[in-house]
Amino acid sequence: MVFEFITPFQLGLLSFPVLLLVIALRIPLAASMFVIGLLGTYLVSGNIRMMDSQLKTFTYGTLTNYSLSIIPLFLLMSEFATRGGMSAALFNAAQAWLGHRRGGLAMAAIGASAGFGAVCGSSLATASAMGRVALPELDKAGYSGALSTGALAAGGTLGILIPPSVVLVIYAILAEENIEKLFTAAFIPGLIAMLGYMATIAIYARVVPNSVGVAARLAYRQRFRALFAVWPVMLIFALVIGGIYTGAFSPTAAAAVGVAGTALVAIANRSLTLNALKESLLSTAKTSAMIFFIIVSAGVFNSFLSSAQVPQTLAAFFLEADVSPWMILIGMLLMYLLLGMVMDSLAMIFLTVPIFVPIITQLDFGIPPSEVGIWFGILVLMSAEIGLITPPVGLNLFVINNMSKNVSIGETYKGALPFVLSDIVRIALLVAFPAITLGLVRLFY
Amino acid sequence: MISFERLETALVRFSAGLALFGGLGLLFATCATCLSILLKLGRRSAEALLGPVWVEEHLSWLRPILGEEELVTYGVGFALFAALPWAMIQRGHIKIDLFEPVLGQRFNRFLDLLGDLALAVLAYLILTRQWFLIFKKARGSKEPLGNLLLQGDFEQAVGRMRTAQESQILGVPLWPTYVVAELCVLAFFIVACFCVWRSARALLSPAQVGQA
Which member of A57, A97, A208, B149 has the greatest number of CB atoms within 10 A? Predict the structure, then answer.
């Protein structure tokens, strides 16, 4: 240690308020974590050797890592899916089957978002792709601005709730968990999320009857025709997720298959022009570089925390403390809800997971320790995703609100509230019954 | 003197071009994986229909691409390194803007400058440290590479690069990948320096914010 008056653990703890202050001052998250991590490493080790070695190898090692290659590939897949015209086919199919019900068109938007989430790992991309297609239809059918924008913002979160999910990949990296198992575990909770949102719309339509319009009932022939039109999406999902679940492909290979599949569909729909390809590659480049720079920085910061024994000491403290593991878990999830209101979900995950996971995996929840990290990953995903639809920085709300013509942001906030409640009910259900999350994992692995 | 606007246009074009060139790495990784999967499927089908011995004798080329994972790793790695300047010039790095409205325009610009400066310093540190990877002292004398070059001992200097690491499966030398990575980080550093200038300019001349 460079300083005598402070222990490495105290320094590690002190780094958190400093980090939060620096990022609150709008310094990019990556730069904040990197610089504080480097300084902390120097102060703990007392020499620049470790810092030097991190600078030499961390960036190259992280950017040329086969397992991490999955992230840009999933991002590119999402880009192609967004530009490939799949959202319209999905909405048509969902509309054909659900549109005539009370609130059916909004339910169709949710169903289509879930379908889109199956080939897209990003929440914002799902929200914007579905918003573009579904908002004008909902408006035409007489749905209230609050319900239509709220439902579409919430539907967007299905992009990350239903595998493949970029956020889940990042959790897997930070928590050193198995990506295949996490994708498998996310499937049933993702479906429950979709059904929960549909149920929310059904209740909303009964409580506020004038918020919904009606659409004509279609003959079964037309319904099946609309359903048949989404076979490419189903095929890509079956190949990517089926390939991962059955072990036929590694997750990275499955992501590459997804890129090829979505590209082929986009080419067939004549929507992948040279310009669209260029835009897709540039958008993927921007997001990937941003994510990877944070991964490198988080690596430096977490290495400092480990050298200061912060996760280990905190885990030991919580083990010895006379607090129920469930209270600790609920406390952490509540923290995600609160942080989600002011912080980007990725930033939140990068900051908390390396600290929370070592603590949570030491606690006894009555399930095998090897499964706790998987279960917690899904709970983190679900809790972090709520931040996308809660004010003041719920990004999905802004994306959808910007697309709608005459809806105030206040109305959108109001419309999203029932879906936030649905999220909280679902998380409570997943906390109370871990088997919902772990059932498929136990079946497959 | 080079005008700011011309330099900005040139750097935006250069960063976009580099990111797109890197994007080819992503497409290459996709094609390599899919081709490898198709070859694997083809081999399995052929073995089931014609028997493994016959396939080995007559269709020995029908097998997954050797080192597919390495091709993907370096294809994607190139895409990521090449994307660093683009994310920088596009202000793509996550910031928490919660307090932006209450901090005042001038202070926000100052913070933008500070953020860009931090990224530029990091780019510089990575650039100057990562350099070591190219000329790793794998074998031979511990003489610094700079000294070797000054002494005119080019043979040993090049030898150092050659004796550095090789990839595990394909056995190709890794130093060219380090050179490419280093060049991309150099581009990142140059763009980051420009971004510092851009932010400083916005801070000092409020009238030109729209162009910055």
Answer: A97
3-state helix, strand, coil in chain B (%, to 5): 75, 0, 25
Provide the ipTM: 0.87
Token output for A84: 């490939």
CB B68 within 8 A of CB B33: yes
Residue A123: partners with Cβ closer than 8 Å, 6 or more residues away? A156, A157, A159, A160, A345, A385, A388, A395, A396
Closest CA to A148 of A156, A139, A161, A159: A139
A246 touches chain B (CB under 8 A): no
Q: Does an H or E element contain B132, and which?
A: helix B105-134
Residue A143 in contact with partner chain B when CB distance is under 8 A: no
Query: Can you read off the two tokens belonging to residue A416?
Result: 């999203």
Gap between the Cα atoms of B170 and A58, Å rounded: 23
- Position B160 confidence tier, pLDDT thresholds 50, 70, 90: low
Integer Cα distance of A413 and A265 in angstroms: 35
Nearest CA in chain B to A66: B73
**Helices A123-140 and A395-403: angle between axes, nearest 10 degrees:** 40
pLDDT digits (tens, 9 = 90+) for B110-148: 999 999 999 999 999 999 988 877 766 544 556 666 676
Tell me how far CA of residue A264 lies from CA of A193, A255, A407, B30, in angstroms: 30, 14, 37, 12
Residue of A30, A35, A60 lying closest to B133 (CB–CB): A60
How many distinct structural domains can be found in chain B? Answer: 1
Contact A131, A401 (CB under 8 A): no
Which amino acid, A405?
K
**DSSP secondary structure code for residue B166 in this structure:** B
Helices (H) and strands (E) in chain A, counts: 22, 0
Nearest CB partner across the interface for B115, out of A28, A292, A344: A28
Structural domain range at position B87: 4-211
Residue ranges, chain A, pLDDT below 70: 1
pLDDT tier, B207 (very low <50, low <70, confident <90, very high otherwise)? low
**For the ranges A231-235, A250-254, B3-7, B11-15, the one whose mean pLDDT is highest:** B11-15
Q: How many CA atoms lie within 13 A of A276 on its CB side?
A: 16
Phi, psi dihedrals of residue B39, rounded to the nearest 5°: -65, -40
- pLDDT number for residue A6: 84
